[in-house]
Structure formats: C-alpha cells, structure tokens
UniProtKB/TrEMBL annotation:
<dbReference type="GO" id="GO:0015937">
    <property type="term" value="P:coenzyme A biosynthetic process"/>
</dbReference>
<dbReference type="GO" id="GO:0005524">
    <property type="term" value="F:ATP binding"/>
</dbReference>
<dbReference type="InterPro" id="IPR001977">
    <property type="entry name" value="Depp_CoAkinase"/>
</dbReference>
<keyword id="KW-0547">Nucleotide-binding</keyword>
<keyword id="KW-0173">Coenzyme A biosynthesis</keyword>
<keyword id="KW-0067">ATP-binding</keyword>
<keyword id="KW-0418">Kinase</keyword>
<dbReference type="InterPro" id="IPR027417">
    <property type="entry name" value="P-loop_NTPase"/>
</dbReference>
<keyword id="KW-0808">Transferase</keyword>
<dbReference type="GO" id="GO:0005737">
    <property type="term" value="C:cytoplasm"/>
</dbReference>
<feature type="binding site">
    <location>
        <begin position="12"/>
        <end position="17"/>
    </location>
    <ligand>
        <name>ATP</name>
    </ligand>
</feature>
<dbReference type="GO" id="GO:0004140">
    <property type="term" value="F:dephospho-CoA kinase activity"/>
</dbReference>
<comment type="pathway">
    <text>Cofactor biosynthesis; coenzyme A biosynthesis; CoA from (R)-pantothenate: step 5/5.</text>
</comment>
<dbReference type="Pfam" id="PF01121">
    <property type="entry name" value="CoaE"/>
</dbReference>
<keyword id="KW-0963">Cytoplasm</keyword>
<comment type="function">
    <text>Catalyzes the phosphorylation of the 3'-hydroxyl group of dephosphocoenzyme A to form coenzyme A.</text>
</comment>
<comment type="similarity">
    <text>Belongs to the CoaE family.</text>
</comment>
Length: 200
C-alpha cells in the first residue's frame, strides 16, 4: 500500500523547494502546477473552454495560453477565477490521479501531491496525510515579489486569492517552517522523513 501525502502551502511558501529536496531523496512528487499547464496545452478541451469564457485574445500569437494576461484577470476578479478553476481543476485532478496510479503500479511507496489549493479545493479526501510548507506572511510577500518581479500590489492580489497560510497551518497534520534558511528547512524535512519512517 502506498502512502499518499498532500504537500501544500501558500504561493511562494516553498512547496517546490521542499518537493525538490524530497525528489532528490527518491520520493515521487506529482505537481498540480505542472498538471495545470499540461491540461491547457493546444488541442486540449480545457483550452477551448477558456477561450469560450475569456475570448480569443487570451491566446498568444502562437496559439498557446497567455498566462500573464490570464493571471492579470483572475487574480483581481474572484468570479472569473472561479470560472477558470471550474474549467481547469477537474482536468488537473484526473491528470494527478492517473499519475498516482502509474506510480503505484511502478511500486512507489510514498507519493506526494504538491498542490497549492489542497484545502481551498477540498481535496484532502485524495490524500492520507497533509504536510504544510509554512512561511511567515512577511517573508512570503518578499519572496514572491523577488521571484516574480511583482509589485507589492500584484503579489498581495495573488496571496489574497488563497486562504491565509496561518489558517492552513491549523488544518495540516504536519508543518515544515520554511521562513529561515534552506539548511534549516532541509533539517526539518529530514526529521519529518525519519519521524514518519517514509520509504520511497
Ligand atoms: C492564472 C494562471 C494562468 C497564471 O499562470 P502563472 O504561470 O502566472 O502561475 P502558475 O500557474 O505557475 O501558478 C503559480 C502559483 O499561483 C497560485 N495559483 C495559481 N492558480 C491559482 C488559483 N486559481 N487560485 C489561487 N491561487 C492560484 C498557486 O500558488 C501557484 O503555485 C495559472 O495559475 C492558472 O491557470 N491557474 C488556474 C489553475 C490552478 O488553480 N492552478 C493551481 C494548481 S491546481
Ligand atoms: N528557505 C529559503 N530561503 C530563501 N529563499 C527561499 C527559501 N525557500 C524558498 N525560497 C525562494 O522563495 C521563492 C518561492 O519558493 P518556491 O518556488 O519553492 O515556492 P512555491 O511554494 O513552490 O511557489 P508557487 O506557489 O508559486 O508554486 C523562490 O524564489 C525560492 O528560491
């Protein structure tokens, strides 16, 4: 029996950073952000549905989704974000479940879903346990602005489109605090692996 763990957090809290540490140790990560890109590739039904709602201008000249343009709309408009989620999320869930079945068939013992919206989207039924990658809100804002080159207003719009990370902290089974150095985070990751006796 494989153990399925939901790895979640807030935007720029360090989910990819911790996922990469776990990947290097041989664990299997299934990434919802990657799923959300695959399911809107040209020719996919979700892309056509996005065009129907947001208009043909939401595509680039090459016919791919203009992510910057769509982001500028949906992170400032809750209704539009809900419409986008309703199109993309079912396809994301299916892609992740298919990947999970493949990993189980390959004999993997621990499978992590890296999913920023695990709590918001009520997806905890898909996992046996949850791990929250926490960052204090001030550091989160600074890291998001630095990584994406966002203004404070743009970064706050994205952070506010998710549940507050302090609320998620209360809901998670385990928490890794990524507010400090990468070395300190790796120490907590190792401790967590040992405590749960995770096999890859
Ligand atoms: C709006 C889009 C085009 C912006 O693309 P962009 O390349 O700028 O961002 P990217 O996809 O890499 O997401 C970065 C982070 O933003 C946050 N985020 C993305 N979508 C959402 C959303 N619908 N609600 C809240 N936060 C979100 C997550 O923390 C994610 O890790 C894209 O995020 C998207 O299609 N979102 C809808 C699908 C979705 O919910 N993805 C999240 C995982 S299922
Ligand atoms: N402990 C740390 N110290 C310094 N910088 C860090 C640390 N952890 C992460 N970062 C940086 O913070 C930014 C956000 O981290 P990361 O991309 O891992 O977050 P994420 O939760 O995966 O983000 P998203 O929700 O957008 O997918 C990145 O630029 C990363 O290099």
């Amino acid at each position: 029996m494989a153990l399925i763990i939901g790895l979640t957090g807030g935007i720029a809290s360090g989910k990819s950073t911790v996922s990469n540490m776990l990947k290097e140790k041989g664990y299997t990560i299934i990434d919802a952000d990657i799923a959300a890109r695959v399911v809107v590739e040209p020719g996919q039904p979700a892309l056509q549905k996005i065009m129907n709602v947001f208009g043909p201008d939401i595509l680039t000249a090459e016919g791919t989704l203009d992510r910057a343009k769509l982001g500028a709309i949906v992170f400032h408009d809750e209704e539009k974000r809900k419409q986008l989620n309703e199109i993309v999320h079912p396809a994301v869930r299916k892609w992740m479940m298919d990947q999970k079945e493949e990993a189980i068939a390959a004999g993997k013992k621990t499978i992590l879903f890296d999913s920023p919206l695990l709590f918001e989207s009520n997806l905890t039924w898909m996992v046996d346990k949850t791990l929250l990658i926490y960052v204090d809100p001030k550091t989160q804002l600074h890291r998001l602005m630095a990584r994406n080159g966002f203004t404070e207003q743009e970064a706050k719009a994205r952070i506010q489109s998710q549940w507050p990370i302090d609320e998620k902290k209360e809901l998670a089974d385990d928490v890794i605090d990524n507010s400090s150095t990468l070395a300190e985070t790796e120490r907590q990751v190792n401790e967590w692996i040992t405590r749960l006796r995770l096999e890859s």
